[in-house]
Write a structure and sequence with these properties.
heterodimer; A: about 425 residues; alpha/beta; 8-stranded mixed β-sheet; 6-stranded mixed β-sheet; 11 helices; about 25% strand; B: about 110 residues; alpha+beta; Folate-binding fold; 2 helices; about 15% helix
């Protein structure tokens, strides 16, 4: 890659594909290095999911900090990055949310070029169905808020919904489609490729991606953090970023503080692959279901969260039942479809359903968590804001409103309506 | 599916009959409290990966609130007890210690 100082990464291009095709694809190399941990780094990020890797990437790209390690207990993108339904949108109600999610969405538009990795961003359009009068009013309000925030959304009527997505049954009877909030520039991307693309770009900048390295302790002295204990030995650092979603509470406990977070299981499922039948993303928040069709043809369906604390990466069956039951009324053609796989991810829920990008009571430790049920869409924006926070020690304009102090001061960014379940 | 025995009506109910109510034994802080205490009462949670004491309501049964001890990493239920309890019953704590020797306690 141009300007690289680290791991030698060959550029992906149409010529590379042609060259490899001529030699039986034996020349493809590893996308990132697997180094031994150094005893010390300027910055250590815990969590090798999208948010952690994006933070590392923008630390290097925007702030020139490349002596960075990303420490991951399992494999890259093996947590919620690989478990979500890949929806990207920015039609939130509150200004701080709209700003960071819209930043993220706009970065997704050029991500494939920036990272030289095809993340298959597909701005196919996202519609959030209004199936009750309350939702109609709520989404019309969001449409107005979005207009003021510079986020293009539009409230559309049921006929237009049917035109955009012919497989929807709009008449009800239980859940008639009364309209939808339509964001034409929202869509989906390939989640694994986002993690891999960032990892590859980080490795090319000389950063260390340390997989299968579990953090077992965090050390600190009077002046702040001094390092981490890991399953592969001690790593010293004066700047530590905790970007671990559902396990944020466990890491915070190691560091000696608590977070306003509870971890719940959120479920998703995919069907057997079928021919293309739906080229938009449809979210139905009343019935806790959302759906898109993957490029392979599977219907990707997201469900609801359990109401109780859960770290098992599987949810309760009755949530799946509720989701599917409601979806087949709105999409009758799904009723004969077999579901292939079901899984759960551990999401970190805050009291106001908005994330935390913040300094912490321990100097040198920063947290980026609380993305709850909708972190994938935010990955580039979150990384951008977290990198700025870690580089400067102070939050920039994107992260400012998402500080931990908001819970004490009552400055909530209430997105329980915009986020709800289908986030 | 998660099954809890309601300590009032004695019915072993599955989770569709129950409503979860979050962490148990929170100390309620009111108007005279410090900002820290009030924030911690409203938002700070233990959220352990392991033994968790929590509130449940037998919503589609007797309708009463009760408390339960459950492992959030395995979904194993250690027991349930009435909501009026200030602390988990000793018998329950002993049972948990027997199953989780390294457990650091509930406080």
């Amino acid at each position: 890659m141009p300007g690289s100082r680290g791991f030698d990464v060959k550029r992906y291009s149409v010529f590379a594909i042609a060259r490899e095709a001529l030699r039986w694809h034996r020349g493809w190399e590893r996308a990132w290095a697997t180094p031994e941990p150094k005893p010390e780094y300027d910055v250590v990020i815990v969590g090798g999911g999208g948010h952690g890797l994006a933070t590392a990437y923008y630390l290097g790209k925007n702030h020139g900090i490349t002596n960075v390690a990303v420490v991951e207990k399992g494999w890259l993108g093996g947590g919620n990055t690989g478990r979500n339904t890949t929806i990207i949108r920015s039609n939130y109600l509150q200004d701080p949310s709209a700003a960071i999610y819209e930043k993220a969405r706009s970065l997704y538009e050029t991500m494939s070029q920036d990272l030289n990795m095809n993340v298959m961003f597909s701005p196919r359009g996202v519609m959030m169905l209004a199936q009750t009068e309350h939702e109609v009013r709520g989404y019309k309000r969001t449409e107005m808020a979005n207009a003021l925030q510079g986020v293009k959304t539009e409230f559309i009527g049921p006929e237009r919904v049917k035109e955009l997505c012919p497989i929807i049954h709009i008449e009800g009877p239980r859940y008639p489609v009364l309209g939808a909030l339509w964001q034409a520039r929202g869509g989906t991307a390939r989640h694994d490729a986002v993690a891999w693309g960032y990892a590859r770009a980080c490795s090319a900048m000389g950063m260390h991606i340390l997989q299968n390295t579990e953090v077992t302790g965090i050390t600190r002295d009077a002046s702040g953090v001094t390092g981490i204990e890991t399953s592969r030995g001690r790593i010293a650092t004066r700047k530590l970023g905790l970007v671990v979603a559902g396990h944020s509470g466990q890491l915070a406990e190691m560091a000696g503080f608590r977070l306003p977070i509870e971890s719940l299981a959120l479920q998703a499922l995919v069907s057997e692959p079928i021919k293309p039948c739906m080229d938009v993303v449809v979210m139905a928040n009343t019935v806790h279901g959302y759906m898109s069709q993957s490029d392979k043809g599977e219907m990707v369906i997201g469900g609801g969260t359990d109401g109780f604390n859960n770290f098992t990466q599987r949810g309760s069956f009755h949530h799946i039942e509720e989701t599917v039951r409601a979806l087949i009324e709105t999409f009758p053609m799904l009723s004969r479809l077999k579901m292939l796989r079901q899984w759960g991810g551990i999401v970190d829920m805050t009291g106001d359903r908005s994330p935390i990008i913040s300094t912490t009571p321990v100097p040198g430790i920063f947290v980026d968590c609380g993305w709850g049920t909708g972190g994938f869409k935010a990955i580039p924006g979150s990384g951008w804001a977290m990198a700025e926070l870690m580089a400067k020690g102070q939050p920039g304009p994107l992260a400012e409103a998402f500080g931990l102090s908001r819970f004490r001061e009552g400055r909530f960014i209430d997105e329980s309506v915009a986020a709800g379940v289908a986030h | 599916m998660l099954m809890l025995t309601c300590p009032y009506c004695g019915i072993k109910a599955d989770e569709t009959e129950l409503t979860p109510g979050g962490e148990a034994h929170l100390t309620r802080f009111g108007p005279e409290a410090s900002d820290e205490d009030f924030e911690s009462y409203l938002f700070q949670r233990k959220n352990p990966k392991g033994v968790h004491f929590e509130r449940w309501r037998h919503a589609y049964g007797c309708g009463k609130w009760f408390l339960a001890a459950r492992d959030t990493a395995t979904l194993e239920v250690f027991g349930t007890y009435p909501a009026q309890s200030k602390a988990p019953p000793k018998r329950l704590l002993t049972a948990i210690r027997r199953k989780r020797p390294g457990w650091e306690g509930w406080e």
